[in-house]
Amino acid sequence: MKIARGTCFQSYTASLPTHAVRTVRNSTIDLLKVFASQIIVIHHLLLYTPMSPVLQAKWPDLLGFIAIEGRYVVQIFLVIGGFLTAQSLFNMLKKGRKVAVWPLFKKRFLRLAKPFWVAIAVAVLLGWLGSKIAVHDEISDLPSVTQLLAHVFLLHDIVEVEALSAGVWYVAIDLQLYAVLVLLGWLSQRLGQQSDRWIKPAHALLLLACAMAVASLLVWNRNAEHDEWAWYFFGAYGLGVLAHWAQREGKVVWGSVMILGVLGIALSIEWRERLLLTGATALLLINSARIERFVALIVQGPVRWLGDISYSVFLIHYGLAVFASSVVIALELSSFAEMLAAFVLTWALSVAAGWVLYWGVERG
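Now predict its structure.
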């Protein structure tokens, strides 16, 4: 099963879990997570299931757009990730708490990896069961020990082994990005302690993160050969850091001008549509406190629930899609009504399975 990077989550996280415990929920983040995660599920169902050609023939414009462009919602999760990690690190630096790199990294690794391991096991099992029903392009052989170990330690792209599920590369990238920003936080704290206080640690972190983000947007992000490493994606992540700082310090206008200016330069050097979504997300997050009471009217009950389980839904849905494809082929479904029912059922089962994974593993 060869899954192209451009077709999977290039986007989160599913949604990925938050990087810090928040005392007050940000409804804008919840809404963005729900939107992006559900688009990713639909995107993958359109790419990897036999229901897709029939449905796209009926609604070619809408579904064709999601199938091709849906990968861009990864930018939403990248910006959110930077925003939330910055929130945690800036709080540490402001309170003078030590930025302990290894404990923070280990905690993040386990938080990402535990539901990821379960989802990979489910994908392998469902793929094997699906092969007993009907073989299709997404069915692959049982993984080797090397392949499994690479996934266990989130090194699958770095060591160039075949992915066991759609979008698993993003989990590894999220961990890399988190590690890089934590290291920058540690370095900022050292600079603040050893510079006769000519620069505050929080300001040092902002400058380092912005410098790396600019380098990413203007240089590294223009070469897809770097897309297994954090620096390729740090432009969006760094804008999330800037968005949090601007909101925190009441510099909304100044932060917005900086984001628009950097993106304008990056786009003038090389046009990348995904950066438009990056900028829109960063600007929404900068203004999230101002629009909280309005967005909160939308983010109630089911929407908030979908936001909570979005990472688990992202992790688990591909295995279900592979198995559902085998069932559809074995039953020889072909009509529009049958394919639509199979598509919606697979989508609903993905959400339900994500809820089980969230409550059984991720939340614990």
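The first helix runs from residue 27 to 48.
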